[in-house]
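Dear support,

I submitted the protein below through the web form. The confirmation email said the job was done, but the results page showed an empty box. After a refresh the structure appeared. I'm attaching both so you can tell me whether what I see now is the final result or a partial one.
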Amino acid sequence: MSITAGTRLGHYEIRSTLGAGGQGQVYKAVDTTLDRTVVIKVLSSDHTMKASAMARFEGEAKLASSLDHPNICTIHGLHEADGVRFIAMQYVEGRTVRELVAGQPLELNIALAIAIQVADALAVAHARGIIHRDIKPGNVMVTDSGMVKVLDFGLAKLLEQADQNSNEPDLTQLGVPYGTASAAAPEQASGARTDHRADIFSTGVLLYEMLTGTWPFKGKTVVDVRYAVMHETPQPVAEARNEQSPVITRLQEILDRALSKNPDDRYQHVEDLRNDLRAVLREIDADSTYANSLTGGVSFTPRDRAKGTFFTPILRKKAVVFPVLGALILAIALGAFFFLKRESRPVINTLAVLPFTNVNSDPNTEYLSEGITESLINSLSQLPTIKVRSRNSVFHYKGQETDTQKIGRELNVGALLVGRVEKRGEDMSVSVELINTKDNSQIWGERYTRKLSDLLPLQQELTRSITDNLRLRLSGAEEKQLVKNYDTNSESYQLYLQGRYYWNKRTAEGLRKGIEYFTSAIEKDKNYAPAYSGLADCYWLLNVYNLGPATESYPKAKEAATKAIALDESLAESYASLAAISYRYDWNWIEAEQHFKRAIQLKPDYPTAHQWYSAMLAAMGRFDEAHAEAQRAHELEPFSLTINSDVGRHLYYARQFDQAIATHRKSLEMDRTFTRGHVELGSVLAQVGKHDEALSEFQQALSLEEDSLNALIGLGYTYALSGKKAQAIGVIEQLKKLSGQRYISPYHFAVIYIPLGEREQALSHLEKAADERFNLMVFLKVEPQFESLRSEPRFVALTQRLELN
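What the results page shows now:
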């Protein structure tokens, strides 16, 4: 039958020819029943007579139509009309990866985002026992909306068909090479049996081309190429890109594993490859569009879009537009492969949970609104498929009018979750709304009325509804992780929320109340790991906030953190606390670094772990690493004044005083009432000889917080440094008087004795501070205030005692 424009095949009317190749012809057509443009794929007449070709043709339709994933091209239907067998598929414009590359390397984040989506598609196929067997740049399309689509499962076959004991004939003859020569795995090149690991190899080839702009395996003939696939090693990516970096090194490691000749040496599951790529993408730019859209598409500039239609040369004579699917496969009706179309909503991979509003305006119920907010952030941030903005980032907007599009731009997120909590006696009402920040449209909204005792199941219901409406696909392990923090009783959970509420205040009273509530939560449930983790956080900060000697609080902190980890080894927060205790109290630097790395491995986007790790690195004099970790924490929590102060403090330790001053001034521009900002700025100004300005900053800090011990110490130190001996001695006397009312470390006296020239007094007090294991002793090696003591044998002995040499 001759098929030309105007030809009718059932209820499809052919409009034009898109291309032709070895398998047959592809046409653009109109579905006259549903009035939509489609693509028709027809086998050539010489193939329709062959049983093997028909088996493959039908298999392609059945396999592709059984897969339901946004990154997989799906079939509308398998039909026969006037003796012609054809497949109807959705028509979408796009460009293939081959066309995007066009002989030039792609940007790293674009290449990774595409590869991750391909791996997502293959993960779904492999879970159904389906191998693609022809992953290549021409079979991966990127639509004009940025969604990656894996095309043409025509060579796919069920894994069980590869079973050696199967009596069914294999659709591909053994011993004959198959798949595209430059992308096929070695076992395909030799005609051997394959499994899903062949797709992993081909995905590696795809990634290599995107990263380098060329094929990893080359030759003048197909035979040469297949030989290269089986025996040769590709040019290193660093050489091909003329680029050296830790990221390139990591990508090379991933490629080496994916492109292993022996399937047993490759990634054994495509999900593992995907997860490693995601980790690198986050490392490149955690806040970029690409890193925050791991499975949701790749954005292109207007210039890219102006280049015109995206084409995909699935057939070999010329480039043709090829179909891709929406989010859901069409439903089968009456045994025919015909499906009803449903438009899909784009997957959203970035979310900010804004502070829930406390409708009651009652401080006694504030823990409820803040606790629900923080718990949702903590639970959702455990998922690798979505990036959730941290607590400090979102609490910056507490009490502000909600301009969703403005906040969406500032936080670079695709969706916001906003909510209201109202408590009425033993009842509560929770209203939530999930909003698309792009167009301010509501994705989902719900109102819940529950007993306060039902807070736990409500939290679980909320997290599941959020992930469902964001269209996140969760594994069984991820589902379990999602509700892990709620694995306790209602009483314990409410006490835990109250503990976190007070801990987050970072005040003396807040820490004490936090300890009370966490302890009560543990009394209600002795196996509730998050409560032990919160208790550890409170105890180890007591000495940092000058609320008691380290010898009293740190052992309790260590006991609580160790218990939390024993109950739940996945708690990153517990490892971070244990790490801080290990170096600040135990002076075990090696163990501390191991704990910090474990915390970051478990929760890469946990800003506090990066912040605390940076402090330890600074104490060791590893300033470049310290600055990198502090900057990472700052990127994750751009509105955190505390983290910004740490960035400035590490610059101070590194003697980069001008940069430190600029950093602290930036903090104070954000909030002039930030007491620590004035203290930190005063400390740096004192070191550069600007004594009057330094004194002004310390006095400003004391006017904001009259019991600020750090401001008082800074004042005494600067008085002594500027020759105002009487005022400095006056501060020492004031400290002696205060020591009868609150904890004052010998360290604080030492700081003022140094510029007074009282070396013996200073060293004696530092030795007492070491006996008490005061937490700031670990910065002895880098603190500029101790510069005049560095040659003193007793001071050298102290640094050796702390293993700082």
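Response: this is the final, complete result; the empty box was a page-load delay. Residues 97-306 form a domain with the Transferase(Phosphotransferase); domain 1 fold (CATH 1.10.510.10).
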